[in-house]
């Protein structure tokens, strides 16, 4: 069957606009709009009918030519004259997007069941294999008009914002993609978790144990950053993504731990990050400090979660051994692969697995009777508290086992991540 035969079958189904006629052959050429394809097909068929004195075809064309472009009273049976309202849809979309700062956008469409059914009927009856979906054309044509009105470009891969045309409700929904900011944080006081920690007793609802706050701890690194980013971005919420986390009673020193904070549904995307960092640090009152804030893409979150960074810790320990025995034990541990079962202290929230992690080096920074300070350089994921205590034999080898006396971490500082 030729293209003109297929076009004639399509015209036979009923009044159809140039957009819907041309869309059935959208894959056959480039540089043309579907309305141009449709118009060209009509003209060619009309010329053919004239040359062949084909009265049947002339009659079909006479009925079909009464399209929405030329006869306001005739409706396209496929799109119901949808493509005569492209400017109106573009204006609605621009209005819906106007409250959100963005450099690029994308148009999407929620088609009605009737339009989807009409399109499927047309494909089945005509047998065309060159068509594109109605919503693809609508997205493109409305997108072109938005570009012309706003001067902003459509982004098909990673748009900052999406205008979703809801054909059934004659409205435009807005989907705003998150804003991602990378940085490093230093935690300068103990007793603050990285993220909000719901109360174990009530699950966050509020009870006597948590003084009706719903939280185990009243502050976190996340919550010391959150209100300032929400204010700057005018976002609905934030989400905090860290490259691992330190214990609540540990300090995070050195150049800090990498993190990404996600501003959800931001109205503002152009933020002065230097000013934001100064605001966060000022209001944190010496509890945390953020460094090196910069904008990143969403993929950075996954990269952050999967990074296998080495760590450097400073451990203050209590012990019952001699300096000679302690030095001997840390010499043995340096360069050794440690076999660890999930520590007893976190078994309530983590699977009981066995891990193998390497200790690169341990240095004895200071030694006193019953107190020593160790600096441990190791693979990420090693539980250093248990490296010292042995955790009842769940970590092998350990300082306690090698010295033959009890040992325990009483203060922990993270000096370097990655």
Give an overview in words:
With 418 residues, the protein is of the alpha+beta class. The protein folds into 3 domains: 3-176, 2-Layer Sandwich (THUMP fold), CATH 3.30.2300; 179-306, Alpha-Beta Plaits; 311-417, Alpha-Beta Plaits (2-Layer Sandwich). 34% of the residues lie in helices and 26% in strands. The strands form 2 sheets. Strands 5, 6, 7, 8, 9, 10, 11, 12, 13 and 14 form a 10-stranded mixed sheet that branches. A 4-stranded mixed sheet has the order 2-1-3-4. The longest helix is centred in the N-terminal third of the chain and has 19 residues, at 34-52.
Strand content range: 25-35%
Radius of gyration: 33 Å
The count of strands amounts to 14
CATH third-tier fold name of the largest domain: THUMP fold
Low-confidence spans: pLDDT under 50, at least 5 residues?
A: 65-70
Structural class: alpha+beta
Mean pLDDT: 92
- Oligomeric state, counting identical vs distinct chains: single chain
CATH-defined superfamily of the largest domain: THUMP superfamily
Number of domains: 3
CATH architecture of the largest domain: 2-Layer Sandwich
Report the total helices: 13
| Percent helix | 25-40%
H/E topology pattern: HHHHHEHHEEEEHEEHEHEHEEEHEHE
What general outline do the C-alpha atoms trace?
Answer: elongated
The main sheet comes to: 10 strands, mixed
N-C termini distance: 65 Å
CATH hierarchy class name of the largest domain: Alpha Beta
């Amino acid at each position: 069957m030729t293209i003109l035969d297929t076009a004639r079958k399509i015209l036979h189904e009923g009044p159809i606009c140039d957009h819907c006629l041309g869309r059935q052959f959208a894959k056959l050429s480039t540089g043309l709009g579907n309305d141009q394809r449709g118009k060209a097909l009509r003209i060619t068929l009309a010329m053919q009918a004239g040359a062949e004195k084909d009265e049947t075809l002339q009659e079909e064309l006479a009925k079909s030519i009464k399209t929405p472009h030329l006869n306001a009273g005739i409706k396209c049976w496929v799109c119901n004259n949808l493509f005569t309202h492209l400017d109106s849809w573009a204006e609605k979309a621009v209005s819906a997007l106007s409250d959100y700062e963005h450099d690029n956008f994308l148009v999407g469409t929620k088609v009605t069941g009737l339009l989807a059914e009409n399109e499927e009927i047309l494909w089945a009856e005509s047998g065309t294999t060159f068509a594109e979906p109605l919503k693809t054309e609508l997205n493109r044509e409305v997108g072109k008009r938005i570009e012309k009105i706003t001067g902003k470009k459509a982004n098909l891969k990673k748009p900052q914002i999406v205008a979703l045309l809801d054909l059934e409700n004659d409205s435009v929904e807005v989907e705003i993609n998150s804003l991602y900011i990378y940085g490093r944080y230093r935690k300068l006081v103990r007793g603050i978790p990285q993220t909000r920690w719901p109360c174990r007793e009530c699950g966050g609802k509020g009870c006597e144990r948590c003084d009706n706050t719903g939280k185990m701890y009243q502050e976190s690194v996340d919550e010391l950053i959150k209100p300032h980013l929400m204010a700057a971005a005018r976002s609905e919420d934030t989400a905090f993504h860290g490259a691992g986390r330190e214990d609540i009673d540990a300090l995070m020193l050195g150049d800090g731990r990498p993190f990404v904070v996600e501003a959800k549904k931001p109205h503002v995307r152009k933020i002065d990050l230097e000013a934001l960092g100064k605001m966060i640090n000022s209001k944190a009152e010496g509890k945390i400090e953020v460094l090196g804030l910069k904008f990143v893409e969403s993929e950075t979150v996954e990269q952050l979660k999967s990074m296998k960074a080495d760590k450097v810790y400073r451990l203050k320990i209590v012990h019952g051994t001699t300096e000679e025995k302690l030095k001997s034990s840390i010499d043995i541990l340096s360069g050794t692969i440690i076999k660890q079962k999930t520590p007893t202290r976190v078994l309530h929230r983590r699977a009981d697995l066995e891990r193998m992690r390497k200790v690169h080096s341990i240095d004895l920074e200071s030694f006193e009777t019953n107190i020593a300070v160790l600096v441990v350089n190791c693979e990420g994921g090693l539980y250093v508290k248990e490296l010292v205590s042995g955790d009842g034999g769940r970590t092998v080898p350990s300082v306690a086992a090698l010295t033959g006396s009890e040992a325990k971490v009483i203060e922990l500082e993270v000096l370097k991540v990655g």
